[in-house]
Specification:
This protein is an all-alpha fold and about 500 residues long. The chain contains 20 helices and no strands. It has three domains: about 90 residues; about 90 residues, no CATH class; about 230 residues, no CATH class.
Length: about 500
């Protein structure tokens, strides 16, 4: 027995210490699970937020791309010469661009939100394009009415009677009503245009009346039922004009000296000495015109528009136009050859005019068809007007031709001379700077492309003001040329 054991035997009984397990404090396991779950959710949420941020960036990039592209497309389509088709082409472009952008990597919600934004933004631009197209179409139709108004007025001026002019006014008014019914002009504007049309017809009517019978015109102007569109001040002004015309008629004795001076001028024998013989019997205007014409050299650069106007005036009334023709020769606005053609045609000389009863009317129609444009090359415009003496020559060589055959000949001659002018002008007209097609292939589509590139250059500031003006002028001249090409 060990010493330790023996020592315990002598000790009184005492409780023996018991060693048990350590008690842990109470802890809610459910709470712990929730905390762990929340920690996991937080991590997942961070990942989701990052994905949303990236998607938002992609959406904003798509929006920026759409704004840039749609703004350029809106400008181009709003200024498209084909204003009738531009809204449909823009709508198709917009649809394709929206589909292209929505095909990107987006969540369902993101795609839906982007689609709604694209739809709204695209609709705004589409509305602008439609409004621009409507505005341009309205401008086109209003300009057309204005152009037709000029033609109505010309027809009224050339009409042989007041009844004919009344028919022209009736047609003009129907045209105005059609424009108002189509919505291109307001009914108020239509009413104003009808008033102006009636006034224009009455003005043409009274002008012809004063020219042909100033005494009768004065009597008509004193009757309020005649020329109903005139105000009292209009009647007073035209009565004064009729009185002046009547006074001019009293000086009809001037006709003989004018004929004498004209004969010498055409022979090249009119000089200061011979002019002195007529100075006492010619009006100051006529004397100045003949004096200048006698000293005028062959015109180096005649004015085709002035030449055309004189042809028209001389065809309508050769005697009334004569002094104006002589004055134009003195100004150098027409050449010696052009002067001779106008005078010969007016006097029925062999060089110019046959005597068929329909010749004057057909020649007037031919002259109207050959009117030069303001943008046409001057030399080619003058050559184009050579169709008139060519037609006169055809009439002289075909004295038995009826009106139908003569009308066909006039149309053929006009087309031939116009196309000669067009072809020659196409060969020498300066090409637009931004043309990409060669001259023989430069058509309407190529011109539109050059115009588009010019607009882009203007927006970018690539051209200075002088260059821009020159390029716009080139584009307009080509547009004018192609319009004349297409009219044949």
């Amino acid at each position: 027995m060990s010493d330790v054991y023996r020592s315990r035997q002598g000790l009184p009984d005492a409780p023996v210490p018991q060693i048990g397990g350590i008690r842990a404090p109470d802890f809610d396991t459910a709470t712990l699970g929730t905390a762990i779950a929340n920690l996991g959710n937080a991590g997942a949420s961070l990942l989701v937020d990052a994905d949303k941020a990236k998607e938002k960036t992609r959406i904003n990039q798509a929006k920026a791309s759409f704004i840039d592209v749609i703004a350029k497309a809106e400008f181009e389509h709003a200024n498209d010469p084909d204003f009738q088709g531009s809204p449909l082409r823009f709508a198709e472009f917009r649809r394709m661009k929206e589909e292209e952008l929505l095909a990107g990597e987006f969540s369902e919600d993101g795609r839906e939100a982007l689609g709604a934004w694209l739809k709204d933004r695209g609709a705004t631009s589409e509305k602008h394009v439609k409004m621009a197209a409507i505005a341009r179409e309205r401008d086109f139709n209003v300009a057309g009415l204005t152009l037709r108004g000029e033609d109505y007025l010309k027809r009224a001026s050339n009409a042989g009677s007041r009844a004919e002019r009344a028919l022209v006014l009736s047609e003009w008014n129907r045209d105005i009503d059609d424009m108002a019914g189509s919505g291109w002009i307001s009914h108020q504007a239509a009413a104003s245009q009808k008033i102006r049309a009636a006034r224009a017809i009455d003005t043409a009517d009274v002008t012809l009346a004063i020219r042909h019978n100033p005494a009768r015109a004065q009597l008509d102007l004193m009757n309020d039922e005649a020329f109903p569109s005139f105000m009292p001040e209009d009647r007073a002004a035209f009565i004064a004009a009729a009185q002046d015309a009547e006074a001019d008629a009293d000086r009809a004795a001037e006709a003989a000296p004018v004929a004498g001076a004209l004969s010498l001028l055409r022979q090249g024998r009119l000089d200061p000495v011979t002019m002195a013989e007529f100075s006492g019997s010619l009006s100051l205007k006529a004397a100045r015109a003949f004096t200048a014409a006698a000293q005028a050299p062959e015109a180096a650069k005649a004015d085709p528009v002035r030449y055309w106007q004189l042809l028209e005036q001389a065809n309508a009334d050769p005697d009334a136009a004569l002094i104006e023709v002589v004055a134009a020769r003195g100004d150098g606005a027409i050449s010696a050859a052009q002067f001779e053609r106008i005078v010969a045609a007016g006097e029925g000389q062999p060089q110019g005019v046959a005597t068929q009863p329909f010749a004057k009317a057909l020649r007037g129609q031919l002259i109207a068809r050959l009117k030069p444009t303001s943008l046409q090359d001057a030399d080619e415009a003058a050559r184009q007007l050579d169709a008139i003496p060519a037609f006169d020559e055809w009439l002289s060589q075909n004295p038995q031709a009826d009106e139908a055959k003569a009308r066909d000949a006039a149309a053929t001659i006009a087309k031939d001379f116009r196309m000669r002018s067009v072809r020659a002008e196409r060969d020498k007209l300066p090409m637009p700077r931004y043309a990409t097609a060669l001259r023989p292939k430069f058509d309407a589509a190529a011109l539109a492309d050059a115009g588009k590139r010019l607009r882009e250059a203007r927006v970018s500031g690539a051209l200075n003001d002088d260059e821009l003006v020159a390029e716009v002028d080139a584009i307009r001249r080509w547009q004018d040329l192609m319009a004349r090409e297409g009219s044949e």
